Amino acid sequence: MRGREPQGPRARGAQLRPELAAGYAGLEAEIGHRFSNDLSMAGVITAAKQASPVSWSVPGSVDSE
Question: Domain of life here (predicted)?
Answer without folding.
Answer: Bacteria
